[in-house]
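Supplementary Methods, section 5.1.

A reviewer requested that the exact input to the structure prediction be made available. We therefore reproduce it here, unchanged from the version used in the analyses.
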Amino acid sequence: MHTRVLQETAVRYFVEVVRTGSVKEAALKLNVAPSAVSRQIARLEQELDTLLFERRARGMVPNAAGELLAAHASRQQQDIERVASEIGALRGLRAGSVRIASTGGFAADFLPTLIATFQQRHGGILFHLDVFPQGQIARRVRDGEADIGITLSALPELGLRVELRHPSPVLAIMGTRHPLAQQRHVSLAQVVEHPLALPPKDSSLRQLLDISCSRQGLRYAPALVSNHADTLASFVAAGGQAIAFYGEISIRTRLLAHAVAAVPLRDREMNERYLEVQTLAGRNLPEAAKAFVQHLVEAIRATG
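The structure derived from this sequence is encoded token-by-token as follows.
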């Protein structure tokens, strides 16, 4: 076996097929012909004397050997980024990049604001912020597709380092003139008497709401369902009777602008929620990502 093949274009093409699940899609991303991608994959498989993919009707899925090679390629790319970042650090964090995977609530307002304040001090840092469902964040970090994951915790995840775990109770969010807006606390029993602005049924917040309502024998009527977090906030801010659910961090800018009111919920399940900042266990983060983690953790802890 010629290991030199592991350092060449073939691996780059292989990684893109793993990411997209398709030779055709990989070729579009790489701006080459599909035949060129197929040749490189065939070359890899010939040199390594093993198949790397299971060819299925819906695309290509890496087999055990393919997963090993994908993990090698990810580690190699991380090493390259780390060295480049350390060289950039010698210039005072004037270069580098940070890749963040986040759930939608944090990406709508909180993270863009933090990125902007960070770049006021380190203007040469490029950020990539991608939004995923909660269940995908840990995998993105573990597979090396993101430096930092920001999500709401469920079960502990193997292979991850939790940089911060911070309480993130669910608040009832409504227009400032809503009948419940001046209450110190409200219960779900009070809230479900009003129309609700909710995320889809497969979201973690919706599932949490359903569990709590089921336990109490409560029913609710959605007025709006959207997978776009900012849409729900804009809807309740418009001044109707609807109520949405957010953590304080996700809605902070609107609260400071007095565009909406936030009222704590009494219900136990709605308060047992935590924000997590995740990185890959055992990985030496690039300097730019390391500095942003510190910036992020300080900003979250400042909320009390």
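The first strand starts at residue 53 and ends at 56. These observations are discussed further in the main text.
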